[in-house]
């Protein structure tokens, strides 16, 4: 049996992961990480991390396993939060949870676990791992979780072979109701505790208030672009990959002013809440933001053409392949199932690696493509790779 360090978060998922591992006969150690001290902008409680730690300790005591605590807040601020602030400042929409898994849970936290003599690190993620031997090497694969409503493989799409080597996902084959039921069987304090929401380790936040720690609020204008704009007619013509992947660009002359906002940095493509503009037959959606001019562009209705794109470009320097042997070379392309945000149903798309850049061309136009988000591509239930969306 192995020595396994479980990242006890104070939630039901990691609690059940620890219980299952102990039941299997492993030596289990609970390790709680405190990653965030500041409560600016948080919507629930003064010290959510304190409650989490109390629940984690109660679970460890109930399971009779060792419990340790580590403060990783400095690394978390530097690697995740500072990155998040910088991305929003550039008018992009980052995904801190993906970064948190790559940079904290399976890097800094993993190193802390190895100091405790761990053979493996386990988390409460709804995903699975498989392995096979090829040419004398062990190849690890990241698979979607068995629960289609809770699958979290997207959040782990940046993990490497070395990180997967140490990873265990004990609840990946379970459905959420089964996890709750197991927690009740073990009489765990977390059995009925609500799932955490919002930013990884920070919690549910008022995003503009949270971001104002680093980005000042600034009044700007909201301009509406009509669905009949001539810009959209041009996209119906035959186009190159680069042209299809280019985001729509607007100026204030393309539409009329319909409202004001407190800072273009605080909004993202596809957003409809927080605009404060009513009296419409259909909701207004953000179709573009311009942080240089501090202008937001909106369109009426969920079918507005400005919300949809047929292709996107990926940052070449941040392309990630879970198994580097599957990397595509220049001139190669392959069809995958892709998602560009968590819980989005998988979408058919072809990944093209060209001399002009790396592109995803979708079988059907995609709604609300946001720069800074991660696109993850799958072969069936297996995560093959991921990359950051340029635009």
How would you explain this protein's 3D organization?
The chain is an alpha/beta fold and 391 residues long. The protein has three domains: 3-211, 3-Layer(aba) Sandwich (Rossmann fold), CATH 3.40.50.620; 220-307, no CATH class; 308-388, Beta Barrel (Elongation Factor Tu (Ef-tu), domain 3), CATH 2.40.30.10. The protein has nine helices and 18 strands. The chain has helices at 12-23, 48-63, 73-89, 96-115, 161-166, 176-185, 207-211, 230-234, 241-245, and strands at residues 3-7, 27-34, 66-71, 120-122, 127-134, 137-144, 167-168, 220-224, 256-261, 284-290, 295-300, 308-314, 320-321, 333-339, 347-354, 357-367, 374-379, 382-388. Strands 5, 6, 12, 13, 14, 15, 16, 17 and 18 form a nine-stranded antiparallel β-sheet that branches. A hairpin with a 2-residue loop joins β15 (347-354) and β16 (357-367). α1 runs parallel beside α2 (48-63), α1 crosses α6 (176-185) and α3 runs antiparallel to α4. It is globular.
